[in-house]
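Reading group handout, session on sequence-to-structure problems. Before we discuss, look at one worked example. The prompt was deliberately terse, the way you'd type it at a terminal:

> structure Probable DNA 3'-5' helicase RecG

The input record follows.
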Amino acid sequence: MTETAVTVGTPLEKVLGAKSAKPLAEKLGLHTAGDLLYHFPRRHDQRGEHTDIRGLEVGEDVTILAQVKRVEARQMRQRRGQLLEVLVGDDTGQTISLTFFSQAWRQRELTPGRWGLFAGKVTDFRGKRQLNSPDYMLFDEESEVAIDDFAGAFISVYPAAAAVPTWTIAKAVDVLMGVITMPEDPLPAALRAEHGLMSLDRALREIHKPADWAALKSAQKRLKWDEAFAVQLTLVQRKVRATSLPARPRPRRDGGLRERFDAIMPFALTEGQAKVGEEIAADLSTPHPMHRLLQGEVGSGKTLVAVRAMLQVVDAGGQAVLLAPTEVLAAQHHRGIAELLGPLGRAGELDSDPDATRLTLVTGSLGAKARRAALAEVASGAAGIVVGTHALLYEGVDFKDLGLVVVDEQHRFGVEQRDALRAKAAQPPHVLVMTATPIPRTVAMTVFGDLEVSVLAQLPQGRSPIASHVVPNAEKPAFFERAWRRMREEVQKGHQGYVVCPRIGAEEGDDEVEPPTDGSDAKRPPLAVLEVAPILAEEFLKGLRIGVLHGKLPADEKDAVMRAYAAGDLDVLVATTVIEVGVNVPNATVMIVLDADRFGVSQLHQLRGRVGRGSAPGLCLLVTDALEGTPARVRLDAVASTTDGFVLAELDLEQRREGDVLGAAQSGRRSHLRLLSLRKDQELIAEARSRALTLVRDDPELSRHPALAASVAALVDDERAEYLEKG
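And the output record:
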């Protein structure tokens, strides 16, 4: 033990010595006593209990608790030496092989009946899972960890690395627990009592070495509460600060453009559109900036709601801008809004309405002369509604009076962009973020918790149903051929189709697809647009007019392809996920997604929303080599079984790692958010949200709760706070 007190900030080398601390720092990023203290066990096993061997994924680094069942040594055929194969498992019949090359001496200690921890990477050999040369620790032998460390009822299995197995971490934790001065408990005693939470000191000790299952469960509840409360306090504080900022009110005006637009609309608003429209109109009328998330299914009419909000701002003397994630989508939004507004959006033209505003498109691909003209319209205020990409926030684009920013499908619209916007206006503008990706309640509460949330659940009348089917190429190749016949049949009826591939071409880094979230083991490179399109033109779709669209095409070429497709000059568009968001061609009725198992659930739902947008029904065919019963196939079957985006969003959440949702994967840095599950802890998160609202209303900066403020800062570091703000 060191002479000075050991606190969470003490370097580990002062606690463990440089030799023991170095691998923890290099392999696991554990530098301080606090890092190790909050490096919680991945799970807790009991002697005699089995690990779920059947659930192990190929490529996963695992530690399993198992018993040696059988040992066999044999001469290798391809090279000199012996292969030692050890079968380990449990009493339920689940087993996995351990293989050791030229290490026959291990047969003396790996004898049938012995229990131990075995750590290594899961590999596949001829359809059988195995661990090659794993590290292990047997319980009834002398080892670097005293037998007493594992003599209790529980074995704590830690997230480990190849050079730092779980038993090494357990030994380091044991040393730490004997010397550390635990941090002050940040939660007020009244709050702990109200929610039945144990003290922080006890929770941190029980999570590493629980006395029993009840103590472990109580420790987990307390530490999850800390994580949820820290995130919710951060979001609620941000929300309160945002609503206290000044903004120019943009109230409705009788007889204005919005009222005129409502009168010329060829269809009635849905009940949901009317309700959300009222929420937004009320927000725009307040002297504080609106920060609202509008989520709704593909085709629910979000753009129409946004146009009405933009017209309200124009009526109040301001300008509105719609930011799209790609130039293709920006150009399409410009065309779509122009059609909606008609003469109301053509100020200065011969057929314009006397009270019209001007709709202007600003993208990086504009020519120099057109760009100067567009920027002049923006700067003078002549352009009441501006459409473009995020380039609008920079590059010397000046607004006369920016009142509203609408962000389409840009979930991580955050700190830098908001700072850039504030520089464009005398006061912060109102912000509306739109997404067609349905968001589960706990994700909305945790990732988008600083925004007010509106939901458009209704689809407008006249939208056609979309049928989805899995095409199992490996099992039923005849179905694959039938898919292309269906494409031809739709074209013969006068309709159009999409073929979607995960990749652009053969070059590395050409993927335009989110990786699957369920550990699917893809054996070959994904199919690519530039490889598939020529084959379709020569074989399956010979004679049809085929276009190609992907993210690496120059902007003017992308726009030309989309215009040709929208005009009906192309029968089939072979594309990457560049068509995933916002592309609207009502005549497209069929989509074939190749290597569909390479796409995430939400991505597939977004993609199929490109068909069935007119009066004819849509058809989406999900082609896959994934076999029945595999995680990838189960995922595709689920997508095919429902068009309810919220059901699929919950499925997506189940299959994602929590870090992907909460931002740990994005930051690349250590985070103490370890235990909270957005799927399993919905009630706890809601409780933490409610308590955070009460506390922040009473003490906005937590000045009367310094320990709690410090705890929030430790759990939600600056980079994570920035990630959360980007909601």
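Points for discussion. First: The first strand starts at residue 43 and ends at 46. Second: The chain has a mean pLDDT of 81.
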